[in-house]
Write a structure and sequence with these properties.
The protein has five helices and five strands; from the N terminus they run E-E-E-H-E-H-H-E-H-H. Strand 2 (15-22) and strand 3 (25-33) form a beta hairpin. The longest helix is centred in the middle third of the chain and has 25 residues, at 41-65. The two termini are 29 Å apart. The chain has 152 residues and is an alpha+beta fold. The chain has one domain (2-145): Nucleotidyltransferase, domain 5. The strands form two sheets. Strands 1-2-3 form a three-stranded antiparallel sheet. Strands 4-5 form a two-stranded parallel ribbon.
Length: 152
């Protein structure tokens, strides 16, 4: 998942996107403009992290209803260290009151071991394909990472 902070030059709303993968295939994805202006790149990424987490929780419930074991948390890759720190450390919450309270459920999902946050370099964010213009080489690389194969 990733967010391109204040990317819209007309209204400065961020564009965000995520991919959810199961084994080597993409099973869910989203790409859209955020509903309001984020005051920082951390806030923009915090919003898409919350949106992605909701999708992960829904997918985990679906998988469990299919009687498949979920022995470990789902890994959520984030390329913003500040976002990870805010979610993992509730002491930071007093410093980010401008971020809506509803996003703090992320901390609870980490505590409940439903998701596990891991840092991933910006250059490795497959979701960038959904929110940014990329070089042909990076587009092909991310397309293959998503499990989309060229058949011609």
């Amino acid at each position: 998942m990733d967010a391109d902070w204040a990317s819209n030059v007309n209204n400065r709303k961020s564009t965000s996107g995520f991919l959810c993968m199961l084994t080597e295939g993409t099973v869910s994805w989203s790409s859209k403009k955020q509903g309001s202006i984020a005051l920082s790149s951390t806030e923009a990424k915090y919003r898409i992290t919350a949106h992605t987490t909701k999708e992960i929780i829904w997918l985990r419930h679906l998988i469990s209803e299919l009687h498949q074991p979920l022995p470990s948390p789902t890994i959520l890759y984030i390329n913003n260290q500040s976002t990870i720190a805010i979610i993992k450390n509730p002491e930071f919450h007093d410093h980010i009151k401008h971020i809506k309270v509803r996003y703090h459920f992320l901390w609870q999902k980490v505590e409940n071991e439903e998701i596990n946050l891991e840092y991933m370099s910006t250059n490795a964010q497959t979701a960038d394909m959904l929110i940014k213009g990329l070089s042909r080489k990076m587009h092909k690389h991310f397309r293959l990472e998503m499990g989309v194969r060229h058949t011609l």
